[in-house]
Amino acid sequence: ETGVTQSPTHLIKTRGQQVTLRCSSQSGHNTVSWYQQALGQGPQFIFQYYREEENGRGNFPPRFSGLQFPNYSSELNVNALELDDSALYLCATNTGSPFSLSGNTIYFGEGSWLTVV
Amino acid sequence: DQQVKQNSPSLSVQEGRISILNCDYTNSMFDYFLWYKKYPAEGPTFLISISSIKDKNEDGRFTVFLNKSAKHLSLHIVPSQPGDSAVYFCAAQAAGNKLTFGGGTRVLVKP
Fold first, then answer.
1. Are B89 and A90 within 8 A, CB to CB?
2. What is the per-residue pLDDT across A12-31, written as a single tens digit (0 to 9) for each?
């Protein structure tokens, strides 16, 4: 039990549509990150939010965006969906800040499976 | 450019024997390493970690070894149990929390 909850668990969207994925974490987990895991690969870092501001982004285009709310919940939004966006999207949280040294254990949710047809 | 590599995509081991999973990294800025276990349709579950100031960390049946000069780490599971059958990911962290993952190793423990 990581205390990280994601919704929905599965969804199917059509190419060109937009999708919003949600995540809630336990109190005190000030940093939230989103990862994309394509089939047969390891998770890839999308971006990280701290105190409701984006702080660090991986190699993903601007149509991937996010929000973090004061109540330890967050969203991942993807616009203009492409077939290659089909993947498992993972929310990850931790208590450290992006400015801290490494050593923070990152806890993952169960993920949201997105299929784009 | 893969900064974290798990060169063995799969591993099969008999119940009770040792499982050894390997991971190599290239980025010298990585100073904290984590292993995650993942079952199908679930998110990664944290298993064990190690700081670069150590060369070994043990937690029950799981031991992680770090060879900083070789930029290599390994996870030992002993004794292996059927419930250990899963995909194992090695992840590396520099300052700032972001994790860089390897491609995973699928472990099958045969009864």
1. no
2. 999 999 999 999 988 788 88
